[in-house]
Amino acid sequence: MHQTYEHRLVERFQRGDHKAMELLVDHYIDGLLRFVMRIVGSREDAEDVVQDALIKSFERAYQFRGNAPSFGAWLYAIARSTALDRRRQLRFPFAQMTLIDDIAIPTNPQSNLHAVLWSAFERLPDDDQAVLILCDAEEMSHADVGIILERSAAAISSQLYRARRRLRDEMAQVKEVMPWIA
Amino acid sequence: MIRHLIGPLSDAQLTQELDDAITLHCLTCPQCSQELHTQKMMRTLVHNHLIDQSLAVTDSYRSRCMRRLTDRFPHFKGTSAVSSNQTQYHLPIQLEE
What we know:
A: Rna Polymerase Sigma Factor, Chain: A, 0% strand, B: elongated
C-alpha cells in the first residue's frame, strides 16, 4: 500500500472512520495471518494472535503521526511480538508441523519443486524464514522489514542474500535425502 | 538486485557511481552475473511458492475480527458487523472516497 494513502487511512481512522479501519484490515489481514502462522504453527493460534495484534495496533494508532514509518510495518512488528509471546506460552520451539504435513507425494514436476522448496524452507532458522517471507513472498521493502525485525535496512539486505543462499543449499540437500522428490 | 548482494552498504552509502560500477562488474563477471541470476531465481521461486493459498482469510474470520475491533472502539459503537458483504455501519463522519 502506498505510504501516503496508508497515512490518510490512519488519519481517517483516528477521526472515527470505520471504513478506513476496514480498508486497512482488508489490506493486511491475509499477509499477517500467513506471517504469524509461520511463527505459532497452528491456524487457530495464528487467528487469535492476528486478532489481538489488530486490536493493539488500532489502539495505538491514535498516536500514529504522518511522519512515522509505515503503518503496515508497525502492524507486522506488533503481530510478530504478539506471536512470539504466544509461542513462548505454547512452549514448543518452532512449530511447522502442519506445513510439513502439507508435503504430499508429488505427482508432477511443479509439485516436486513446491515440496522441495517447502521442506528446505522449514529447515531454515526463524529469521531467515521471516526475511524470505516478508521480502520475497510479501514483497515488502527492506526498510519496512527492518522495522518489523528491529534491524537496519542494510542488515536485512545482507540477511536476505544469505537466506536465499541457505535456501538453495537446503533444497539441494533435500533432494539428496528425499529421492522421491528429485 | 545489486543491492541484495552488497550487504552492509546502506542506500545512503551506495552512491550512483558505485552502483553503476557494481552493475557493470556484474554484467561482465561470469561468476557475479551467475550469482545475480541465482538470486533473482530464488526470489521468484519464493514469491511463486511460499504464499500458501490455503491460509487465506475466511469471511467468518474476517467478520469476527471486525466485530471485535468495532466493539473495542467507543466511537464505533452502534455499528453492526454481520459479514463482509452485509455490513452496514453508521459512520460518525462523512466518508471521503
